Request: fold
Amino acid sequence: MFFKKNNTCDNIVKELTKKNRLKRYTFLIIGCFFLAFAFNVFFRPNNLVTGGISGISIIVNKVSGISNSLFITISYILLLLLSYILLGRQTTKYSLIGSILYPLFVYLTKDMAQLIHFDVDNLLLVALFGAIINGLGSGLTFKYGFSTGGSDIIGQIISKYFKISMGNALRILNIIIVVSSGFFIGEKGGVYAWENVMYAAIAIYIITYLTDKVLLGISDSKAFYIITEHETSIKKFLIEELGRGVTVLEARGGYTGDRKKVLMCVIPTKGYFLAKKGIMEIDKEAIILINDVYQAEGIE
Reply:
């Protein structure tokens, strides 16, 4: 068993990330490409601001003429530095590769809209297809333990310092970005601009649905209930490696009457796969019950 060979949990995440490394990085590359493709082929040419740094880049381009890829690249570099200062080296590490790949793919696919031109006047159709590709890209990225950085870093900072869940922080941020776009895109304050805002809202809903429901689940967090013979090791992994709080519940078997301890831990949805794999690496015989958590107050 993994933990018998290693007396501490310091290397669990490293060991997990080594496994299927080629598969993980392959899907990260595919995910980042999907995100950049959706942005450059569907969203940017049609002025659909769906939030995030990419959405801000569309607004900035309309106002100042600065290219989208240049704005995204500079923003991602600055946010990585900010993440290192405010969130620490460990958290920043998981955003590093995605923060490099996504701006790179945005630059490489910036002219793709001219090669793959959709002669479609129906913005709803454009929003639907762009959202589907974007949602799949986001899901693949998060599923294999990565982040593309950008607005995710902003959400993590807001969550840490203002005690707001990351899901709510990102929702508030994206609402501000999308609504702001209505004042800058198309005919200023005109019907066309606000029509884009409404289609962007539809796209965001579909992106969230695909990312969360199809690939990750339907909630911001997951509640793990763990019955294990390796209580100390798993607690150490959850607390020290994942930075999550753990509650120990006293339980008794309904049939045997044996007393056991149940570990309860709330994990952000994006950390679901890493937490699950880590627990099973420590104790393959562990019993894990996982529920969706729709609201968790007072949990960092």
Notes: Residues 191-216 form the longest helix (26 residues). Residues 119 and 163 are 46 Å apart (CA to CA).
